[in-house]
């Protein structure tokens, strides 16, 4: 168990025979082709032009695998040893597509370039370990091919993704990000920051006890986070509205609601009442301005409208809490 955990059961690259190096190259090309096809399938519905890029990259990997198998048959016969990346110590790894979802455009483009760069370095190292002239030439040719493919996603983008299509897909991805994460998270941050002002400051001025105030703030923040999260999940499954996974939206809303409330509850861990209260007031000021900035940046809300809605509303709730606490 421990040897497997620390990688002691893996072979070093230097210990591989020429047949095993060819087998490793074959399995690597096969895995890369499968990953590119998974990327294409994951992007096809929303980003069909980008999906074409990865379809072509998968076909390229299939071609590489075919010529490697042909070389193996010539030199070693039809039986290819079962050796994969995870059998070799220090060999680069690939994350399957289900580990990197959701498949953002920039994420998969960057990963594609990383994959080609790693394959280039592998073929250079493999060619140095090979004494057969034909095999050495093949591996060198593949290294050169992979070097030219480091920017394949960009080069194919010139063919399949003209500027207007790329802009359209990037805008669609940005819109989906806003609908799934920013909008629910902003709603949660607003609720957590504003709605907890009254109970926290009412408790503070009513009791004068920082620990009791912190407990009230903690309960209000966590309770509001759970309530808002479940409400977001139950309110819309995202199918018709296109707002994305309700689970993701629920987590975004619930977490940001809790964070918004805890921001001005945590200062009450400070024993001195007025130090904690003034620090909480300063934090509230920055919380409200952060909400206004997010609204302006992602929701294109005018500055004055955001200030009026958030800062003025927060001030009113804060004042209500102080009045109730001093009643």
The poorly predicted ranges are 1-8
What would the principal axes of the Cα set say about the shape? elongated
Q: What does the radius of gyration come to?
A: 28 Å
CATH fold assignment of the largest domain = Ferritin
Q: Give the total of beta strands.
A: 2
Helix residue percentage: over 70%
Number of helices: 12
CATH superfamily of the largest domain: Ferritin, core subunit, four-helix bundle
SSE topology string: HEHHEHHHHHHHHH
- The CATH class label of the largest domain is Mainly Alpha
Q: What is the chains' assembly state?
A: single chain
Instruction: Describe the largest sheet.
Output: 2 strands, parallel
Number of domains: 2
Q: Which structural class fits the helix and strand makeup?
A: mainly alpha
Mean pLDDT, nearest integer? 78
Give the gist of this structure.
The chain is mainly alpha-helical and about 325 residues long.
Overview features:
327 residues; mainly alpha; Ferritin; 2 domains; two-stranded parallel sheet; 12 helices; elongated; disordered N terminus
Description of the molecule:
The protein is an all-alpha fold. The protein has helices at about 1-5, 20-45, 50-75, 105-130, 135-150, 150-160, 165-195, 195-205, 210-235, 245-265, 275-300, 305-325; strands at about 10, 90. The protein starts with a helix and ends with a helix. The chain has two domains: about 1-160, Up-down Bundle (Ferritin); about 165-325, no CATH class. Helices cover about 75% and strands about 0% of the residues. It has a two-stranded parallel ribbon. It is elongated, with a radius of gyration of 28 Å.
